[in-house]
C-alpha cells in the first residue's frame, strides 16, 4: 500500500461517498452508480481508483462484480494517523 495512492483516492468526495456506501455492505457497480448522477464510465473510473489504492476489492459472482470495503487498509491508515498525532506532545 502506498500512502500517496491512498490519500489521492481519498481526496475525491465521490470516492469518499462510495466508501461510505460500501460500509453498509458489498454492492454491484450498477447499485453504486444508481446513487450518483454521473455516467457508468465515471463511476467505473472511481471504482478503479479505489481498487488501485486497495481501499476496496471486487468479488465476481456469475455475471456480476461486487465491490466491498477493504477495512484492513483503512485501519492501517488510521493507525498511522493516530501514531502521527500521538507524536505531537
Instruction: Note the main sheet.
Output: 3 strands, antiparallel
Helix content: 55-70%
Order of SSEs: HHEHHEEH
Give the strand line-up of the largest sheet.
Answer: 1-3-2
Distance between the ends:
28 Å
| Beta-strand residue percentage | 15-25%
What's the pLDDT, averaged over the residues?
A: 91
Q: Which residues form runs of ≥5 with pLDDT under 50?
A: none
Derived structural class:
alpha+beta
What is the number of helical segments per DSSP (H or I, 4+ residues)? 5
The total strand number stands at 3
Topology:
Elements: H1 3-10, H2 13-22, E1 27-28, H3 29-33, H4 40-52, E2 56-61, E3 64-69, H5 71-86
Antiparallel strand pairs: 1-3, 2-3
Helix pairs in contact: 1-4
Name some characteristics of this structure.
single chain, about 90 residues, alpha+beta, three-stranded antiparallel sheet, 3 strands, about 60% helix
What would you say this structure looks like, in words?
With 89 residues, the chain is α+β, with helices and mostly antiparallel strands. It is built from five helices and three strands. The protein has a three-stranded antiparallel beta sheet with strand order 1-3-2. A hairpin with a 2-residue loop joins strand 2 and strand 3. Helix 1 packs antiparallel against helix 4 (40-52). The two termini are 28 Å apart.
